[in-house]
Amino acid sequence: MELALAEAEAARDRGEVPIGAAVVSASGAVLARAGNRTLELRDPTAHAELLAIRGACAELGSERLVDCDLYVTLEPCAMCAAAISFARIRRLYFGAADEKGGAVEHGPRFFQQATCHHAPDVYGGIGEAKAASLLKGFFAARR
Amino acid sequence: MELALAEAEAARDRGEVPIGAAVVSASGAVLARAGNRTLELRDPTAHAELLAIRGACAELGSERLVDCDLYVTLEPCAMCAAAISFARIRRLYFGAADEKGGAVEHGPRFFQQATCHHAPDVYGGIGEAKAASLLKGFFAARR
């Protein structure tokens, strides 16, 4: 989660919403790390999780990340939750909950849907204080 | 929808699940078209809709596709439905319904969630017979 938080800080420094993610293999190797780049890439799908999943898939040469874990500083949205499922991520660790856009504990609760065919083990609230503080600071500065 | 169906056929011919999509601007210009490429790109996020949205954003140099419409041969999954929302797609036209993985009329029904902050107008069943026939033929041939 330290790497994901560092990616969130780097995203903030680029003017992006400060969210970061990392994909780690079963042996503990960091396969990919990424921060949010939706503005820089002009790509609404360039969330930290999607970029990290795509990076890890490229690293492994596989469209599945079996036995890999994903760390992300904010509760994933529906797009990222579904991508986590498709990639067969084993464990999802996330920081702050997201009442407005989250899809794990809020809204669609995607992993609990019958249309979700693989659900990771989910651990929320990891590094929550720092993740939430980064987001609050970012939005407070923009008001 | 004819372009999306042609992309679905091209995906089938590449050995991919036959799903195709196209993004059209308010003036009727085709900004991007794509078929499913998850196997070829070894990328679980390379659904037709996501590739078409990313292509259209690159074409316009914007992370939002305001006043643009998306045509896709199958009911979008949760990942693609959320991406459609983030991109601010105006109208979504889809072909066959997807009971197993759809997220518009099935499962999460993403556009009806309070955590969905932009919902397109949705028109299902457009070109449904051909879209469904492509999928049935593809899976029958693999059994």
UniProtKB/TrEMBL annotation, chains A, B:
GO terms for molecular function: tRNA-specific adenosine-34 deaminase activity; zinc ion binding. The active site is at E49. Keywords: Hydrolase, Metal-binding, tRNA processing, Zinc. It is an enzyme of class 3 (hydrolase). It catalyses: adenosine(34) in tRNA + H2O + H(+) = inosine(34) in tRNA + NH4(+). Its cofactor is Zn(2+). The keyword Metal-binding applies. Binds 1 zinc ion per subunit. Zn(2+) binds at H47, C77, C80. Catalyzes the deamination of adenosine to inosine at the wobble position 34 of tRNA(Arg2). PANTHER family: CYTOSINE DEAMINASE FAMILY MEMBER (PTHR11079), TRNA-SPECIFIC ADENOSINE DEAMINASE (PTHR11079:SF202). Homodimer. This is tRNA-specific adenosine deaminase. It comes from Methyloceanibacter superfactus. The gene is tadA.
